[in-house]
Amino acid sequence: MLFSFEVHSEQSAEEIIKTRKNIFSKNYGTAKKVTSLVVDGEFDQAKQLILEMSENYKTLLSLFPDNTRDVFKTEALPTIWENKDDFNALMNKASSDMMELASLIETTDDVNIMLEKLMWGSCKSCHSKFRVSQ
């Protein structure tokens, strides 16, 4: 699979942090909307949003450069940079999980289990390892 990444070298650390916060916030809002759409049986709209989330996870891979580690108010833990391979693997897994969810959403026996496992589970995995507790 070929991924494309935006180059953020010309952005300031503050701009990069703002961009990644916006993506995480968007994914959270999108996940809530996906859940609602699935409950209403709106699978085509849900799939489109799920695929957007998948792309967002790929974009996040390039939004944690070293110059954003110790600046500004951020909920990112230092473990992101200390365990960069683990973090990147989790973002790639989240992206892949979204692709899997999009392909299974209409045919699964229990869509709520799939949403919990593939969508919300990705969020929880990242938050527990790489985000300040709230």
Q: In angstroms, what is the radius of gyration?
A: 15 Å
What would you call the shape?
Answer: elongated
Instruction: Tell me the series of helices and strands, N- to C-terminal.
Output: HHHHH
CATH architecture designation: Up-down Bundle
Determine the mean pLDDT. Answer: 89
- Integer tally of domains: 1
Helical residues, percent: 55-70%
The major sheet is characterized as: none
Q: Number of DSSP helices? A: 5
What distance lies between the first and last C-alpha atoms, to the nearest angstrom? 35 Å
Broad CATH class: Mainly Alpha
Fourth-level CATH superfamily: Cytochrome c/b562
Structural class: mainly alpha
Identify low-pLDDT runs.
Answer: 1-7
Report the portion of residues in β strands.
Answer: under 5%
Number of strands: 0
CATH topology: Four Helix Bundle (Hemerythrin (Met), subunit A)
Molecular structure report:
The protein is mostly helical. The protein has 5 helices and no strands. The protein has helices at 13-39, 43-60, 79-82, 84-104, 111-130. The radius of gyration is 15 Å and the shape is elongated.
